[in-house]
């Protein structure tokens, strides 16, 4: 009997040993797939390990579940991620704080905001330095602010979407270039280990007019890929749209740019002959890796020559040790925004900006903590004007990546960032947003439920929320025709409207905006009303009324322009001072450079215009001659860097003395310098192309010096003047060496200019 018991015991121990070895092998295999970033395979292996492990080691089980939850996050399977993190938190008390963060994010992406709020609160207690815990806890107390303007938008799924990921559209000519994981190369399909989907390439649809889907409206909202790890791809699918619109064919954008690895988000200069695009780290067709064995993302540029993209160059701030990607040129092409996880940032991925000047790149600069958070900021887009759009999971939103907008001033988000709200944003990932200046229409990407599959591209159009501004005579209630209505948005002057015969003008108002409307008419005292869209009315058309009293006050109005090109100057602080009672009024000019003031009659006054890097302009006025008068005037500003040609300063051939006509023009310069006693200028003299370069340089230097000596002789301090000769280096009319030109044409090049180099 004892022998039988011993044999059975030994057999049981052997079986247990074999089972334990099998389980250990499963866990090792799962960890290997995880370390190789093969998340689909890792999910299968971890799930198998957890399902078959009957006598679980608590430490191994917890480690496997943490990694499994992370895999589901990377695969954008938010429901399974929620399931795993829920089980983890129920059965463990010693988890890292990030598990609570990931659980909170998964809950939000599944629309469970109350539960998410509780997890964010617990995360905030465990990780007090990360502001996301506190911010999201407070944000989810009231979700209404994310839906304030939702009724104004119409969303449509585009017919170019495939059954794979399609995202990050960008305007190109009359169509869209976008990123897609569709594979149209034939029966042999290469897939990406991360999620077993085809590699990303650039595709093009040439006509956005063909992408309109009649009746398509997906106003019920809301993931994209994370920069880093060599991928921006995804796998979690979404449902087919109710419209079931047929697929519209898209073509490969460029066989030169597309490779066997990932090509991602791109941007174009305004002439659309220069592209910067994202690609996996590769050189001459070979993949490159960092010291940690991961393929990073890099930015590459190319030039369009004769319809082909050539001269592919990697940008100078690329690195093998971190990723850079998601480029976006500013509207004026002077700088480019991009995303990176380089050391020294605020979170996972940050947005950076780099200067771009004549094909030369500057040094990247982090956009700062107003834009960047402890989370991930990515997919920037710079619209015309000063608005920077980007996606983030670190700022308060509806879940996953949300689209945000920051109004920039001198490169700083001086008003913070604003969530674009539903239905642009949803509980899923919303990103790759592009639009026009006023955000009236555009495109974006999302993996919200109603997409065909995975990430889809959507169009949006914002309908007008109309506000009628009605101006009346306060005594008779008669509508006032031809009254000016100045629109102020968040305290800054915007456009000037004029009322019609019914005393009405109207505009489309933006959400989350404080407005002021000032009505001005000769013979009336100025009056204004305030209007806020911080809360939304369900009415499609709204009205505000302004009543004007008859008055003997003087209305003072005008426009500030730059002297160099006579264009309206925006952002100028204009102050009217009543020199009798010392009272002051101040406004900041908008795009039209206009200003208006209402002042008591019979008093002298001074108007001052101020802006950084411009000379302060002061204009003094005597008492107005009649009561109720409308006074108009324009103010000119001189700015640092402005260059003015002194059109009447010409020189006789081979001469450098000041002619009589030139003296009169220099007297005008002298008057400017006396008006602005802190201004410093450079006198720049030029010659025609005749004679040698050396001779012309010396001649132009003598001419510039002659102009400077003339001004010094009239009392201008020499330390405010700089004289420089440019010879024939800046011919303005093509009359270079070897070109026959008339004497009059040559004389155009024998000129002097002055450039402002300092003001105060």
From TrEMBL:
<keyword id="KW-0966">Cell projection</keyword>
<keyword id="KW-0969">Cilium</keyword>
<dbReference type="InterPro" id="IPR011042">
    <property type="entry name" value="6-blade_b-propeller_TolB-like"/>
</dbReference>
<keyword id="KW-0472">Membrane</keyword>
<feature type="domain" description="OmpA-like">
    <location>
        <begin position="638"/>
        <end position="760"/>
    </location>
</feature>
<dbReference type="InterPro" id="IPR011990">
    <property type="entry name" value="TPR-like_helical_dom_sf"/>
</dbReference>
<keyword id="KW-0998">Cell outer membrane</keyword>
<dbReference type="InterPro" id="IPR006664">
    <property type="entry name" value="OMP_bac"/>
</dbReference>
<dbReference type="Pfam" id="PF00691">
    <property type="entry name" value="OmpA"/>
</dbReference>
<dbReference type="InterPro" id="IPR008969">
    <property type="entry name" value="CarboxyPept-like_regulatory"/>
</dbReference>
<dbReference type="InterPro" id="IPR036737">
    <property type="entry name" value="OmpA-like_sf"/>
</dbReference>
<dbReference type="Pfam" id="PF07676">
    <property type="entry name" value="PD40"/>
</dbReference>
<dbReference type="InterPro" id="IPR011659">
    <property type="entry name" value="WD40"/>
</dbReference>
<dbReference type="InterPro" id="IPR006665">
    <property type="entry name" value="OmpA-like"/>
</dbReference>
<keyword id="KW-0282">Flagellum</keyword>
<dbReference type="GO" id="GO:0009279">
    <property type="term" value="C:cell outer membrane"/>
</dbReference>
<dbReference type="InterPro" id="IPR050330">
    <property type="entry name" value="Bact_OuterMem_StrucFunc"/>
</dbReference>
<dbReference type="Pfam" id="PF13620">
    <property type="entry name" value="CarboxypepD_reg"/>
</dbReference>
<keyword id="KW-0732">Signal</keyword>
<feature type="signal peptide">
    <location>
        <begin position="1"/>
        <end position="22"/>
    </location>
</feature>
<protein>
    <submittedName>
        <fullName>Flagellar motor protein MotB</fullName>
    </submittedName>
</protein>
């Amino acid at each position: 009997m004892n022998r039988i018991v011993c044999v059975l015991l030994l057999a049981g121990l052997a079986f247990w040993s074999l089972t334990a070895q099998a389980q250990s092998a499963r866990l090792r295999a799962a960890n290997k797939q995880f370390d190789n970033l093969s998340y689909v395979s890792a999910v299968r292996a971890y799930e198998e390990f957890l399902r078959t492990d009957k006598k679980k080691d608590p430490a191994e089980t917890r480690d496997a579940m943490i990694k499994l939850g992370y895999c589901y996050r990377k695969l954008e399977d938010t429901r399974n991620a929620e399931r795993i993190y829920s089980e983890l938190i129920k059965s463990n008390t010693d988890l890292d704080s990030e598990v609570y963060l990931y659980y909170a994010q998964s809950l939000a992406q599944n629309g469970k905001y109350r539960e998410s709020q509780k997890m964010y609160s617990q995360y905030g207690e465990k990780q007090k330095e990360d502001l996301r815990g506190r911010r999201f806890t407070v944000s989810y107390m009231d979700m209404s602010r994310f839906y304030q303007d939702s009724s104004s938008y119409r969303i449509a799924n585009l017919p170019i979407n495939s059954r794979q990921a399609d995202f990050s559209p960008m305007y190109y000519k009359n169509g869209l270039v976008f990123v897609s994981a569709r594979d149209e190369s034939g029966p042999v399909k290469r897939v990406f280990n991360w999620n077993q989907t085809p590699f990303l390439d650039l595709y093009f649809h040439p006509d956005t007019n063909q992408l309109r889907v009649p009746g398509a409206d997906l106003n019920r909202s809301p993931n994209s890929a994370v920069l880093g790890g060599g991928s921006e791809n995804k796998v979690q699918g979404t449902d087919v749209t109710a419209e079931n619109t047929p697929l519209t064919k898209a073509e490969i954008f460029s066989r030169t740019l597309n490779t066997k690895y990932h090509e991602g988000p791109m941007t174009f200069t305004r002439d659309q002959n220069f592209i910067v695009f994202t690609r996996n780290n590769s050189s001459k067709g070979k993949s490159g890796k960092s010291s940690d064995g991961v393929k990073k993302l890099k930015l590459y540029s190319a030039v369009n020559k004769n319809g082909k993209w050539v001269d592919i160059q990697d940008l100078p701030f690329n690195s093998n040790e971190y990723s850079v990607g998601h480029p976006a040129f500013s509207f004026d092409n002077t700088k480019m925004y991009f995303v990176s996880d380089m050391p020294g940032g605020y979170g996972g991925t940050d947005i950076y900006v780099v200067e771009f000047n004549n094909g030369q790149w500057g040094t990247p600069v982090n956009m700062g903590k107003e834009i960047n958070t402890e989370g991930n900021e990515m997919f920037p887009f710079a619209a015309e004007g000063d608005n920077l759009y980007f996606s983030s999971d670190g700022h308060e939103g509806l879940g996953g990546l949300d689209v945000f907008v920051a109004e920039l001033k001198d490169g700083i988000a001086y008003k913070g960032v604003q969530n674009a709200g539903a239905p642009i944003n949803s509980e899923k990932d919303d990103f790759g947003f592009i639009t026009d200046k006023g955000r009236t229409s555009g495109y974006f990407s999302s993996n919200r439920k109603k997409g065909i599959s995975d990430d889809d591209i959507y169009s949006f159009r914002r309908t007008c929320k109309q506000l009628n501004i009605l101006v009346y005579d306060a005594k008779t209630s008669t509508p006032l025709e031809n009254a000016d209505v100045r629109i102020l948005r968040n305290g800054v002057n915007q456009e000037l409207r004029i009322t019609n015969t019914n005393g009405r003008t109207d505009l489309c108002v933006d959400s989350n905006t404080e407005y002021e409307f000032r009505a001005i008419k000769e013979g009336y005292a100025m009056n204004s009303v305030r209007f806020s869209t911080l809360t939304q009315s369900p009415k499609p058309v709204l009205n505000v009324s302004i009543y004007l009293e008859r008055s003997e006050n003087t209305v003072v109005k005008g426009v500030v322009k730059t002297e160099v090109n006579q264009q309206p100057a925006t952002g100028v602080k204009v102050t009217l001072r009543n020199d009798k009672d010392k009272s002051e009024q101040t406004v900041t000019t908008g795009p039209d450079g206009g200003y208006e003031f209402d002042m008591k009659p019979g008093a002298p006054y001074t108007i001052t215009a101020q802006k950084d890097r411009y000379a302060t302009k002061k204009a003094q006025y005597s008492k107005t001659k009649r009561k109720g008068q409308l006074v108009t005037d324009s103010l000119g500003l001189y700015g640092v860097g402005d260059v003015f040609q002194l059109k009447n300063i010409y020189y006789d051939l081979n001469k450098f003395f000041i002619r009589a006509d030139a003296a009169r023009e220099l007297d005008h310069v002298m008057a400017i310098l006396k008006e602005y006693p802190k201004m410093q200028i450079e006198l720049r003299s030029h010659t025609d192309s005749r004679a040698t370069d050396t001779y012309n340089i010396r001649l132009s230097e003598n001419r510039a010096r002659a102009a400077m000596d003339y001004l010094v002789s009239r009392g201008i301090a020499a330390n405010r003047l700089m004289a420089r000769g440019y010879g024939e280096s800046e011919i303005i009319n093509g009359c270079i060496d070897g070109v026959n030109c008339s004497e009059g044409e040559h004389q155009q090049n024998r000129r002097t200019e002055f450039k402002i180099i300092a003001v105060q």
